[in-house]
Write a structure and sequence with these properties.
- The chain is mostly helical and 140 residues long.
- 79% of the residues lie in helices and 0% in strands.
- The protein contains 4 helices and no strands.
- Helix 1 runs antiparallel to helix 4.
- The longest helix is centred in the last third of the chain and has 48 residues.
């Protein structure tokens, strides 16, 4: 039973890391879409948010940006909030610059998380199973 529990824990950790990658993908979609909208039509903030919320690829994205729904480290949680708060706050050229910078940061973060996930995914499974076996042997 303990082996199953700890192996499940390893699977849960790996799954969380995969969800983080999915969250980053949605942020990239948002930043790209905002950038395209600003460069082409310069709509107001409400229209941008309405367009984003209607995108089917973003149906699971929580636009309330509550702390528990942002699946990133604290520093990036703040960057995400700052980015969303900046939409419509500045002139178009400044907003385009902010969007490009955010998009670049998020793409770099995705690359970092992908490398980490690929290299550590099997470790999460192995350590979960190993911990369960060791704990079971110690108890017996």
């Amino acid at each position: 039973m303990m082996i199953f529990f700890s192996a499940s824990l390893g699977i849960i950790i790996a799954d969380y890391k995969k969800k983080q990658l999915g969250y980053i993908d949605m942020l990239i979609i948002i930043a790209e879409k905002v950038l395209i909208l600003l460069e082409n039509t310069s709509p107001d903030t409400e229209k941008i948010m309405k367009i984003l919320m209607e995108d089917k690829r973003l149906k699971n994205f929580d636009f309330s940006l509550e702390n528990k729904t942002i699946l990133l480290d604290e520093a990036y949680k703040e960057k995400v909030r700052d980015y969303f708060q900046s939409i419509g706050k500045y002139d178009t050229d400044t907003q385009i610059g902010i969007s490009k910078e955010f998009l670049c940061d998020i793409r770099n973060l995705k690359e970092e998380y992908q490398q980490s996930y690929k290299s550590r995914r099997k470790l999460y499974y192995a350590f979960g199973l190993l911990f369960g076996v060791l704990f079971s042997v110690i108890i017996i």
